[in-house]
Amino acid sequence: MATLEANRTVEAVWRIESARVIAGLARMVHDVGLAEELAQDALVAALEQWPESGVPDNPGAWLMAIAKRRAIDQFRRRETLERKVVEMGRDLETQEPPNAEPDFDAIDSNIGDNLLRLVFVSCHPVLSTEARVALTLRLLGGLTTEEVARAFLVPEPTIAQRIVRAKKTLAKKKVPFEVPNAAELGERLASVCEVVYLVFNEGYSATGGEDWMRPALCEDAMRLGRMLAELVPAEREVHGLVALMEIQASRARARTGPDGQPVLLFDQDRSRWDQLLIRRGLAALARAERLPGEPGPYELQAEIAACHARARTPEETDWARIAARYARLVQLLPSPVVELNRAVAVSMAFGPDAGLRIVDELTDEPSLRKYHLLPSVRGDLLARLDRHAEASEEFTRAAELTRNEAEQRLLLDRAKESATRAGTV
């Protein structure tokens, strides 16, 4: 039982400390792949030793000390790196043995800087989006390859290959382990935010499988977002991203019914919304608004989410404000998907006819041809206009396009309900 408890503790510590350990090692060895291998060696040592010796008071420092020793051993076997051995060995000699609880600050006093470097390396533009997501969850989220694969419903060997290829690409391209300069920071930070929000969205509205949501992915994304906000506190859009995720996640408990079936926003029991997450989200939004500059796409979406969070009932929602925010969002981020969302807001503020006119202009958009939410939204607007036969056809088409089984069942139920109202069944 003691061994089982110790192993669980090791797993929990790994989730918390792995990113910092890998980041510190990557700065020393200038190789993300090698840094992760060294950190994994330290994890194995913890699994072997902690059941007998007990968990140290500073487990992160213990893991870092062991990993650095492994690094020294590797460098000693490479004659071409003798100079680095001397430098690292001299540094190591000043430290206490791992069981003596070394001071983490003495081992690495630049935790924040190293973590930020690791964030930018994991989300580097030389990697594909899929590789960036997998590597970020692996290195910064502390997830195993199996956990990443399970979260995204992808075979484990596929995820393993993505991670391996990503590390090789970083090494081949000689991506420096550093924070981008001022000229590159905006673009690179946008890539980081994109990865974090992709992870969140996959948890919030799963693209495939049986589950409507995967809360663990949302939690991982929010943890990454909070960490990023502390690392770059002067970046307005990062706080906007955190606010958006916190407020959206506050609805999680209300988004599914007793049998796991999806519950749409208008039908949700708002008393089940997490008020702590709402307060945290609104606080993050306030931090963003206090910073200089204009709101970016994430902050505008957070403002939209805040309108919902502040409304005690669906009827109290300030739809005109939401429609105005979407209009600004379309200017900043021209996208058929954003325009579709604007159509929903316009329909709520000014009537379904106004929304349907916008949607009908999107029906020939190539990028939305297989996007299930286009016929879903159109079906909803048609139903509100009492055009139930047409609405049924749209809901059926939407059900055929989605890969999420829970959402498919919901859409088929709506198609059947509309057909019944139209008198066609």
Automatic annotation (TrEMBL):
<dbReference type="InterPro" id="IPR013324">
    <property type="entry name" value="RNA_pol_sigma_r3/r4-like"/>
</dbReference>
<comment type="similarity">
    <text>Belongs to the sigma-70 factor family. ECF subfamily.</text>
</comment>
<feature type="domain" description="DUF6596">
    <location>
        <begin position="188"/>
        <end position="288"/>
    </location>
</feature>
<protein>
    <recommendedName>
        <fullName>RNA polymerase sigma factor</fullName>
    </recommendedName>
</protein>
<dbReference type="InterPro" id="IPR046531">
    <property type="entry name" value="DUF6596"/>
</dbReference>
<dbReference type="Pfam" id="PF08281">
    <property type="entry name" value="Sigma70_r4_2"/>
</dbReference>
<dbReference type="InterPro" id="IPR014284">
    <property type="entry name" value="RNA_pol_sigma-70_dom"/>
</dbReference>
<keyword id="KW-0804">Transcription</keyword>
<feature type="domain" description="RNA polymerase sigma factor 70 region 4 type 2">
    <location>
        <begin position="122"/>
        <end position="170"/>
    </location>
</feature>
<dbReference type="InterPro" id="IPR013249">
    <property type="entry name" value="RNA_pol_sigma70_r4_t2"/>
</dbReference>
<feature type="domain" description="RNA polymerase sigma-70 region 2">
    <location>
        <begin position="20"/>
        <end position="78"/>
    </location>
</feature>
<dbReference type="Pfam" id="PF20239">
    <property type="entry name" value="DUF6596"/>
</dbReference>
<dbReference type="InterPro" id="IPR036388">
    <property type="entry name" value="WH-like_DNA-bd_sf"/>
</dbReference>
<dbReference type="InterPro" id="IPR007627">
    <property type="entry name" value="RNA_pol_sigma70_r2"/>
</dbReference>
<keyword id="KW-0805">Transcription regulation</keyword>
<dbReference type="Pfam" id="PF04542">
    <property type="entry name" value="Sigma70_r2"/>
</dbReference>
<dbReference type="InterPro" id="IPR000838">
    <property type="entry name" value="RNA_pol_sigma70_ECF_CS"/>
</dbReference>
<keyword id="KW-0238">DNA-binding</keyword>
<dbReference type="InterPro" id="IPR013325">
    <property type="entry name" value="RNA_pol_sigma_r2"/>
</dbReference>
<keyword id="KW-0731">Sigma factor</keyword>
